[in-house]
Amino acid sequence: MKSKYHRIFLEAAERLDSLTESKDNIYHYALNVSESFKPHSIRKLCEIIHKISQLSKEEVVIKACRDLYISLITVVGVERVQEISIISEESTTEEDTRTLEDLIEELNQLIGLQRVKQKVIDLIAYKKVQSLRKQHSLKISSSTLHLAFIGNPGTGKTTVARIIGLIYKKLGILSKGHFTEVSRTDLIAGYQGQTALKVKKVVEQAKGGILFIDEAYSITENDHSDSYGRECLTELTKALEDYRDDLVVIVAGYTEPMQKFFDSNPGLRSRFNTFIEFEDYNIEELLQIFLQMCKNNDYIISSEAKEQIKKQLEEKTTHKDGNFSNGRLVCNMYEDFILNQARRISKIPSPTKLELQEITIEDVITLSKI
Fold first, then answer.
1. 184: closest CA among 155, 146, 149, 221?
2. For residue 194, pLDDT beyond 70
3. What does pTM read for this prediction?
4. What is the pLDDT of residues 215-230, one digit of tens each?
5. In this structure, are residues 22 and 65 in contact, taking their beta carbons and an 8 Å threshold?
6. Burial 313-322 (b: 16+ CB within 10 A, else e)
């Protein structure tokens, strides 16, 4: 069940749609954000809001833009919106000053994901040795670089994919190391014959870096009746081979649907040599993620509040279903808690620095349903 903030967010999108006669275009992206938190949907919605606010001279429209943006921040989280909307595609291709050791350290500092990190470290070692063998004119493996990430949402798949791109750039495996994330809507056109062109365009943009396809099985969601999906996979499979020396494609999604995805095209599975499973976070890891978010944003958790948060995480992990969202769950809890804290602090005439920082038991026991 979505929180009340999602409802307010979608209502704000509908209002701006109505004021600008956008034919539900704004609501469409808002709904995608609410349902999946896809970076490209967040980015697109930010761009639309910014453009309307810059072009419109009507105060009611400008206010509606401001209300929608504030609501977007509430739903998604301040850091997430700023990261996606401010960092442009061009800036992701700029030279990264971090060393290979820095990036490996960044990978190792991620909470949990021990098996994932070891698998990536093994990949790095393998690629380094293959490069050295090539320099000495020794035979090298012809295995592809493409990867499959299997696991539930919110387990760090996107974060790890970004780091891999930068690491491969430092190793000389990729020429740019930039990150491009797409979904079905970015790959499949609305009419026959245009999907191949759309896939080619995406591949051209991603060359030299990582092409990350989240929920890749959505490409073939209509099974054998989906000619657009088959056209997309045919073109994508060709690109996997044609650009294997300077493009890493990472497909990601739930375990069972991903199995069907690979079964949908005979040549697809052979292009992916490495499958990495992302396990759900345990209670302690989820708590660490929450505490890290608080630390990064200058919040302090009282001991009573910390114990209450741990109990809530235990409840949610004990009774989790197929929609368990791991880190995304923690982000939603965090947003709810700081809103509760803001509501409480706003009633204090002159709050101290500590009061502005501290999240108390009162703030966490009034958690709205997520």
1. 221
2. yes
3. 0.68
4. 888 887 665 456 778 8
5. no
6. beebbeeeee
